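INFO batch 0412 | record 1 of 1 | parsing
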Amino acid sequence: NWNGLEQLTKLVVSLQRHTKNDDYELIVVDNNSDDGSKEYLADLSEMCPNISVYFNPENTGWVGGINKGLELIDHETPYVMFVNNDIEVTTDDWLDTTLSHFYSDEDEVGMVGPVSNFTMGFQKREYNNDFPAHHKASFLVGWMLTCSRQALEKIASTVDKDMGLDNVNGLAMLDPVFGLGSSDDLDISMRMKKAGYKLIIC
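INFO prediction complete | emitting tokens
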């Protein structure tokens, strides 16, 4: 998050309202906001035990924020989700539906992304009318991506190692070459596929 208090508030409310399984941790990385986001997040983390916050001393953008979040996740976490601050979830089964793809095919599914009414590519809701409800994709757009820990570990130890990319606690991270964030989603999609994993639109 960077100066996105209004969007961030909507995101948090939608997650709390529509996530029926409370066995999750929400890690928010704030990129030195000055719009009241810090105060909101400080209060939120005190009220909600499953929400933790890291306050970056500078704006490191989307890529830097995600990579900092990867440093902070629990080492036992089986799934990791990268989430923009300007999205809202709208269905009560969104998390169960997302994770169900890993349960059925965890050795092959590496990353899952949802459809939306405001995105690009084949994740745009109206483009999915001609496809099965859940189908493979060539790449995923990165505003809300769920990855298996197993896949991130394999990418870090194989594809990224061969490319000379660093990792975060043994996990593949977003490539810092993309700076504040642009095409990093295409890049992580390509690295997933190179490691032998499927990408799923749900």
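INFO post-check: The first helix runs from residue 5 to 18.
INFO record closed
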